[in-house]
Specification:
By secondary structure, the protein is of the alpha/beta class. The strands form eight sheets. Strands 12-11-8-6-7-14-15-23 form an eight-stranded mixed β-sheet, with helices on both faces. A seven-stranded mixed β-sheet has the order 5-4-17-16-18-19-20, with helices on both faces. It has a four-stranded antiparallel β-sheet with strand order 21-22-24-25, with no helix packed on it. The structure holds adenosine-5'-monophosphate-propyl ester (PRX).
Length: 653
């Protein structure tokens, strides 16, 4: 990447919060100024204040930041706490009967769970885990539908110090197996199935398939009964959730763990084929989750917070399973698809449960926007007071629609930039104070040192000049390492600038007001519907098919998904006549769906006799990108052995 990335999007509209919103917000201008002042004057002291104020410690910490082994940082290292205690028990004195979770199934079933009930159920399930031999430090895979039991399973692991790794229910058996084996997990918690899009997602079947392929570390499988369709249970390995908790007490003392004890692993794509197990800590992660729920989402006692993300993604960890509960809030969980029974479902849920904070992805906003205003206008959205987006840059058109049609020009929109690795929002407006601009995630939060730098690591001061987005100081909620691969952690996140800065992998620019605008990834990572996929992952899946010799994958802009996948494929044997073979294309799409999950299916596949390569054998991705995007070819094609390839790649031969 050159440090002089062109920026095409200039958006000047400014939307300050309404007076009414600002007056009731948790963080007002004076608080905001004080937070920034404290963070500027004493960075570690600032985080120590927050950690003491927002978390309950079993053993207080005396040391704030240990950077003696940078980039392996430790926060609050001699302190001890328990994450589940901080999310549940500590609220029981004054919020035992308050609703912690409002659940709605796709078929319309609704459950409300109070803090007391949730604490009891988490404790009971934690006892069941112990009875199955799970101990502190063991890895447990959670492969569940979006039901409260997914959160209960996560919290129960946290309660006994077990390290969970949630695998998104949309991932295939192969993806599940890879994650189980990388984590050397002892147990899988799954369900018979889940309801999504009017169909049953066969979770147990996928889990069985993964285990049949060899997962030697797995000792047992707990199966939650959701759909109640027939599934085989394997004697000696599988146990129903309801049998596992039978006779277990609803009291379970939390296991006090060190601040740095791993809370969870979450696998995410990088530019190489193998997903990385991003390892998060207990205290630092929870601190990031709670402060951002309070600062960015302004979560208050009477709010109903609906973050639509699945717990299989980091957003569902921080803004469904942990953050809202740590802050004593009420979180909505919806099991199904936004289009069942029709595309008004999200708005109906907002009306029915009086959602006041609504957080979703630009891809969902664009999909719903395309269907027009009639659907949202049929519902009473007056309970909503704050809107949020995450996952990719939001285009100004979608932003304005969200602002007008959903927010009725009354609600601030918090566009939150962050990553699986950062654990919590990093660059985002504090809604009662910071005026927003459509398409910008605004400015870094207090205590977060973000910048845009050039190739040499120098801060770029010229407005709107693009560069690398970096974080220049360690922060509590950051990843600690890549599970089992310290070197990959160092190589991926600290490769440049003498290892001084955390490299986010995004390019960005700052405008004249210091607002950040994310411009895209700098590596071979695709962002499909707000979800990260490595090009190599899709390529590896394609070449694993018996008929494929070589494959190269690039992204191209897509109206709804943000980015879509274009695959160039070289077959073993002859190229199909005219480069077209619909049946094979369908087969390869389904194949990739099976290998990774449906979100990874290429939107287009083109067959050629060869891939365009440089003399040193590198695939000319820029050329492939130009073609996929229908752009003029800017690469030097003189090194191509065979000009005909170009015509084939363009679909002209
Ligand atoms: O490229 C950025 C984009 O999503 C990446 C992180 O993906 P993931 O770890 O899957 O987490 C997504 C949810 C936190 C980032 O490197 N991204 C995330 N939020 C935004 C964004 N791009 C622009 N604006 C955002 N608000």
């Amino acid at each position: 990447m050159s440090s002089n990335i062109d920026s095409v999007l200039i958006e000047d509209r400014l939307f300050p919060p309404t007076e009414e919103f600002a007056a009731k917000a948790r963080i007002k201008q004076a608080d905001f100024d004080a937070l920034h002042k404290r963070a500027d004057e004493d960075y570690t002291g600032f985080w120590a204040d927050q950690a003491r104020d927002m978390l309950d410690w079993h053993k207080p910490f005396s040391e704030v930041l240990d950077d003696s082994r940078a980039p392996h940082f430790k926060w609050f290292a001699d302190g001890q706490l328990n994450v589940s205690y901080n999310c549940l028990d500590r609220h029981l004195a004054d919020r035992a009967d308050k609703t912690a979770i409002i659940f709605e199934g796709e078929q319309g079933d609704v459950r409300k769970i109070s803090y007391q009930q949730l604490t009891d159920e988490v404790s009971q399930f934690a006892n069941a885990l112990k009875a199955q031999g799970i101990e502190s430090g063991d890895r447990v895979i959670i492969y569940m539908p979006m039901t409260p039991e997914a959160v209960i399973a996560m919290q129960a692991c946290a309660r006994i110090g077990a390290i969970h790794s949630v695998v998104f229910g949309g991932f295939s058996a192969e993806s599940l197996r890879d994650r189980i084996n990388d984590a050397a997990a002892k147990m899988v918690i799954t369900a018979d199935g889940g309801h999504r899009g009017g169909k049953i997602v066969e979770l147990k079947a996928a889990s069985d398939k993964a285990l049949d392929h060899g997962c030697p570390s797995i000792e047992s499988v707990i199966v939650y009964q959701r759909t109640k369709h027939d599934i085989p249970m394997q004697d000696g390995r599988d146990i129903w959730w309801h049998d596992a908790i039978k006779g277990q007490s609803t009291q379970c003392d939390p296991v006090w763990v060190d601040a740095e004890h791993p809370l969870f692993l979450l696998y995410t794509s990088g530019s190489t084929g193998k997903p990385k197990g991003i390892q998060h800590s207990s205290a630092g992660y929870l601190l990031g989750a709670i402060v951002t729920n309070k600062w960015v989402f302004d979560l208050q006692d009477d709010d109903v917070f609906w973050c639509t993300a699945d717990v299989g993604w980091i957003t569902g960890h921080t803004y469904v399973a942990y953050g809202p509960l740590a802050a004593g809030g009420t979180a909505v969980i919806y099991e199904g698809a936004p289009t069942v029974p029709d595309a008004g479902r999200f708005w109906k849920i907002c009306e029915d449960h009086k959602v006041s904070i609504f957080y979703t992805a630009p891809t969902a906003i664009r999909a719903l926007m395309k269907l027009g205003d009639d659907l949202p206008n049929q519902y009473d959205l007056s309970s909503i007071r704050l809107l949020g987006t995450v996952g990719e840059p939001i285009n100004p058109e979608a932003w304005i629609w969200y602002h007008k049609t959903i927010g009725k020009e009354r609600c601030p929109i918090v566009d939150t930039w962050w990553q699986t690795e950062t654990g919590a929002n990093m660059i985002a407006p504090i809604p009662g104070v910071v005026a927003t601009k459509p398409g910008s995630c605004t400015i870094p939060l207090p205590g977060i040192a973000a910048d845009v730098v050039d190739e040499d690591g120098n801060s770029i001061t010229e407005a709107n000049k693009g560069g690398y987005l970096v974080i220049t100081k360690p922060f509590p909620s950051m990843l600690r390492t890549v599970w089992g691969d310290e070197q990959r952690y160092v190589d991926t996140y600290w490769p440049k600038f003498g290892g001084k800065y955390y490299l986010a992998g995004d390019s960005a620019r700052k405008d004249k007001d210091g607002y950040f605008w994310i411009m895209g990834r700098i590596d071979d990572v695709l962002n499909v519907s707000g979800h990260r996929l490595g090009t190599m992952e899709v390529e590896s899946a394609l070449v694993a098919h018996e008929r494929v010799a070589e494959a190269a994958v690039v992204g191209y802009p897509h109206d709804v998904k943000g980015e879509a996948i274009f695959a160039y494929v070289v077959l073993k044997g002859k190229r199909p006549e005219g480069g077209v073979d619909e049946a094979l294309t369908q087969e390869l799409r389904n194949w990739v769906g099976e290998q990774i999950g449906p979100i990874a299916k290429p939107d287009q596949i083109r067959y050629s006799d060869n891939l365009p390569k440089t003399r040193s054998g590198k695939i000319m991705r820029r050329l492939l990108r130009n073609i996929a995007r229908g752009e003029e070819i800017t690469s030097d094609t003189s090194t191509l052995e065979n000009e005909d390839i170009l015509l084939q790649l363009q679909g002209k031969a």
